[in-house]
Amino acid sequence: MSIEALKQEFNVTTRYIHFPLHPDTPDEGISIQKLFANRDAADLKAAGDHIRGLMREAGLAYGDRTMTYNSRLAQELGAWADAETDHGDALHNKLFEAYFVRNDNIGDASVLLALIAELGLPVERASEVLTNRLYSPEINAQWQRSWDNGITGVPTFVSHDLMV
Description:
Number of strands: 4
CATH superfamily: Glutaredoxin
Oligomer: single chain
Number of domains: 1
C-alpha cells in the first residue's frame, strides 16, 4: 500500500524523519554492484526482484537502479519543503521518482533545483537552503532521532510505540 493510499484509507497524517542509509556515499554516487560487492549475485537479484514486486503491488513505479547516491542534500531540501512550503509531500514524491525510477543523482544540487522548478517552488530560496546548508542541523537531529530509536532501514513507519 502506498503512503497516499494509507492516508486515504486510515485518515492518518505523515511526517518525514530522515535517516542516513548510506551516508558515506560519495558525491558522484557508487554502483549498486560495488555497494553490495560482498553479496551473492543471485541474492542481490532476488532482493531486487522482491522490491520490484512490492512496488508493483503498491502501484508505484520502480526503475532498474544501477547507482546509489548520497541523499543528504535531498533530505535537507525535503526538510525545507516540509517546514517552509505546502509542497513537502510533492517534493518527497519527486525525489522518490528521481532516485528510484530515473536513477538521477539526488546528491547533485542542479538535479534538486530542477525538481524545485518543476514544482513551481522558489528556486532562489531552495538554492540558498542548499548553498548555506540551512537545514543541516535539522537533518542532524533527525538522524540522531533515528539512531536513538534503533531504526536501521528505510522506510520505517512509527505509530505510537509500534515500529514497522
